[in-house]
Design brief:
With 237 residues, the chain is of the alpha/beta class. Helix content is 33%, strand content 21%.
């Protein structure tokens, strides 16, 4: 059963060495992510599953010990998912899970075994919900670290340019995450999310499926849109 979840954004800029001189701009987001991971640890899970958006080719499971890097962003920095010894040399962590691995390393996560799940960002809502239901029964006490961004269309300089639909979409996502409203997350429009480049839609709907029988409460820890991209941090306990 799902006992806790943390929702974090997944821009590589969360990794200070990637952000370089711009690193201080996301210090508040990093602090919120650290607080969210603390909530997961306090829940004493038997297993932590990290869920993050990816391209179709990167979907599927990643074992504890799987490695990733930020070389694609011009930085010679490697990460490993959890503290297990397993490796997946031919299957590198996708960027969203690499950012999650970095966050776990920052907090010295050792509270439960970790596994990763890359979710195709275009996965249909019903399949996301079904995936979440399956994750919730992996152990007696399951925790999720759910990675993903809100829209990328909040300003003229945003990656997706300014779209007037972005702010209300993000506001509804933030509200739902802040009060653990799974049905509202499940109802997010997948087509609109894709148009707004909201990579968190599919992982959030996986969370909604996992939480269907959990009766959790939520808290919103961070809600800002630096660089015109919506970044949300929330906890469900």
């Amino acid at each position: 059963m799902l006992v806790a979840a943390a929702v974090c954004p997944c821009p590589p800029l969360l990794v200070p060495v990637v952000a370089a001189g711009a690193a201080p701009e996301l210090d508040a987001a990093r602090a919120a992510c650290t607080d969210a991971l603390g909530v997961l640890a306090a829940a004493r899970p038997d297993r932590l599953v990290v869920v993050g958006p990816t391209e179709a080719a990167g979907h599927g499971p990643y074992p504890e010990g799987a490695r990733g890097s930020f070389r694609g962003f011009g930085v010679d920095a490697d990460v490993r998912l959890g503290q297990g010894g397993g490796t997946a040399p031919d299957r590198e962590l996708p960027p969203s899970l690499a950012v999650a691995a970095h966050l776990l390393e920052r907090t010295d996560w050792s509270d439960a075994p970790v596994e990763g799940l890359g979710v195709d960002a275009s996965l249909a809502s019903e399949r996301c919900l079904a995936t979440g239901r399956d994750l919730a029964v992996r152990a007696d006490r399951v925790a999720l670290l759910v990675m993903g961004d809100a829209s990328a269309c909040r300003s003229l300089k945003a990656p997706g340019y300014l779209d007037e639909r972005a702010e209300p979409f993000d506001a509804e996502a933030a509200r739902a995450l802040g009060v653990a409203d799974g049905p509202a997350l499940a109802a997010l429009d997948a087509a609109l999310a894709a148009e707004l480049k909201a990579s968190g839609r599919a992982p959030w709907q996986v969370l909604a499926g996992a939480a269907e029988l959990a009766n959790l409460s939520g808290a919103l820890l961070y809600d800002e849109a630096p660089y015109g991209v919506g970044y949300l941090v929330a906890t469900w306990t």
